[in-house]
Amino acid sequence: MQDASHSPLDAWLARLEAAHPVDIDLSLERVAEVARRMGLLDARVAGRVITVAGTNGKGSTVAMLEALARTHGLTTATYTSPHLVRYNERVRLDGQEADDEVLVAGFEAVEVARRGGDPVSLTYFEAGTLGALHAIAARGPDLAILEVGLGGRLDAVNILDADVAVVTTIAQDHAAFLGDDLEGIGREKAGIMRPGRPAVLGSTALPQSVRATATTLGAPVHALGEGFQRRAVEPGWAWEGHDAEGLVRRLEALPDPGLPLDNAATALQALALAGVALDEAACRQGLTSVMLPGRMQWRGQWCLDVGHNPHAAGYLAARLAERPCQGRTIALLGMLGDKDADGVIAALAPVIDAWVPVSLDGDRARSADALAGHLEAQGQAVWHRAASPGQGADWLEASLEPEDRVLVCGSFFTVGAVLAAWASRAQTATDDRSSEGAT
Q1: Which of 56, 146, 314, 439 has the lowest CB atom count within 10 Å?
Q2: For residue 235, is the peptide bond before it cis, meaning its omega torsion is within 30 degrees of 0?
Q3: Do the bridges between strand 354-357 and strand 329-333 make them parallel or antiparallel, or are there none, so unpaired?
Q4: Sign of the C-alpha dihedral, residues 286, 289, 295, 296?
Q5: Mur ligase central domain spans which residues (predicted)?
């Protein structure tokens, strides 16, 4: 059996990581030129394209869009980032992660086009986006759902025109690239909108610049609390919005998907504007079946969430407060150095009894000791410090009481590392059982 650590896909990913001098280089000229060479701009990659931008809530909105579209019988393709454990998570075709061969074929097509004239340098994310679009175009699904990686206007996915543009929330994050002015951030996120095509605004607290951009473009606005809304009913919740013809549609007694209901309502509105005739039974099925690893993902005593800014941490704190436990709540926290650790800690502090800060690897890493300093400055109890998320999880497993619970949060890298450690342990146990059976 081929060693997965030396697979063709891993070789391509290592090559892409080393190919461009910087990780993030916000521009569309280079990626659009390679897309033109690949023929990705000559014809539609899917029947409809929904592009989702925002600071928080993108992943859950995309997941619900996919689940709802599939229960309505549509073929789908999604592109998201980053991944938690496997790169394959970023591209899903008809609800399944793309296999290695599909991804490698995309990277090969990107490389041929990149060199098919004056060579063009691409970042890891740009090459990945083009490879994903190659896979989507080859499939030609009814609906492609694209998640913006960073910003919007200059993000690589914005080389395609969205039939429906979604902006979920706006908060401060990625300040080194987007700045800390919310109006400016809003303009960047709203850059995915197109003239005359609907824009869905999934928060009641967006900067004025988002709506102003839509107005300037002549993009019809469907805003939460105005063009569409949700309300509590018994049982569940209800949605009201408009379809692509402008007719009012209502859905009653919808189930809680375990993800933010604002994002669920936003997904329903975007899907309706993409021309899908929403069926109440199909919507219930889609909301019941949606799964999104790393977002309020419970595994026994453990809750894993990739929230890494104060806005996301506030949502986490509210959800944990709704679900009290008899024991202690311990946070395993790992954060990158460019994130607002003080804001995240302050938002979570009311529901956390003790903390286990962990170190992350990489150029943007923050050490457990550095995080502990932020925690102690706010009067928080630091229970233990660990050199990695996996080591922190191992220590906690040996220290927890049955009534305790753990929140793993602060970064995709933190949650991904814990999930990977658990998966590795499970695989080792399986291999050991197989070996015992063979003897």
Answers
A1: 439
A2: yes
A3: parallel
A4: positive
A5: 52-194
Cis peptide bond N-terminal to 255, omega within 30:
no
Distance (Å, whole) CA 209 – CA 184: 7
Nearest to 52 by CA among 144, 169, 168, 222: 168
Give the per-residue pLDDT at 425.
84
Tokens of 343: 């804001």
Q: Is the dihedral of CA 30, 362, 293, 429 positive or negative?
A: positive
Q: Which of 138, 137, 157, 139 is nearest to 147 (CA)?
A: 157
> Can you tell me the distance from the alpha carbon of 200 to that of 239, in angstroms, rounded to the nearest whole number?
15
At 319, the amino acid letter reads R
Domains contained in the chain, CATH given = 8-289 (3.40.1190.10), 297-435 (3.90.190.20)
Q: What is the DSSP string of 70-116?
A: HHTT--EEEE----SS-GGGGEEETTEEPPHHHHHHHHHHHHHHHTS
User: Token pair of 94, please?
Assistant: 């008809």
- Residue labelled with tokens 């896909």: 9
* 257 has pLDDT over 50: yes
Q: Which residues, at least 6 apart from 304, have a Cβ–Cβ distance to it below 8 Å? A: 293, 294, 297, 298, 407, 408, 409, 415, 418, 419
Strand order in the sheet with 405-409: 297-299, 302-304, 405-409, 329-333, 354-357
User: Residue written as tokens 């109890």?
Assistant: 381
